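Per reviewer request, we include the raw input and output of the structure prediction for the construct analysed in the revised manuscript.
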Amino acid sequence: MDLIFNYLDPLIIDSVYDSVRGSLQLGLCANSPSSSVCSVIADSKLWCRESIYRQSLSIFIVTWFVHWISSSVFFILLGTVCHYLYFDEALKSHPKYHKNQIRHEIYDSLLSLFGLNVLTVPIFVAQVRGYAKLYDFGSGEVPFWYEFGQFLFFVLFSDTCMYWLHRTFHINYLFNLMHKKHHQYIIPTPFSAYAFDPLEAYIMSLPIYAYSFLWPMSREAQLIVFVTTNIWTVLLHDNRDQFHTVHHKNVKLNFGQFLTLWDHLGGTYADPERYFAGKREGTVKS
């Protein structure tokens, strides 16, 4: 997020705050400049880029409005492309495909994205204020090999966290409380990618940001993994005969996100080709 504000602050945000501050002083402080409100408005520390109040407000506005709109548009566009390219229209006649399902999937996903963006604001504030181990790519702060190795480490870290979080949400109480909402779509389309309870979606997204608080991560890498993770989430739900589609058919199998490592170690792996071949033949060979 601070990478984004490095461009937005000088480009537009500085002038917006200067304009708002000037308007407030002109409208509220012309007749009583010594009032407590005007003293706050006149305090330059509250308006500078390093102010936690300005940073929090800026991140809240950008995340809530701009980021939610852009992520929603991106989700709908990518979902439409994946649905057109990969979704088998014959599945709409399946008895477990819901009436008006895509409409409900989009509604649930957009609601989840909205809540997710709002809940993520404190994480972005912490990153901007330097609590994360973010650095500029190529700055020499880490060995050269790590500049590229961090992507592998992130995948291993994220997949480990996601596997166990996902399995945790399949505990009966949590499943019925939150995760069941996602699994109502037994025949998922790409539009079900974010059809989660907003709080669950937030918890499941934490590994994306947690890595940068534990180990060094370039700002550019943080942006890349954020975008690619969102794309991958949509692709997982395009309902081809693939790894995650098995999970929607059998909630005890295939919990991983990027890799099958933990599913193999945890005894929850099912090969998609064999699984669906077994289904077509009337048996499940997992």
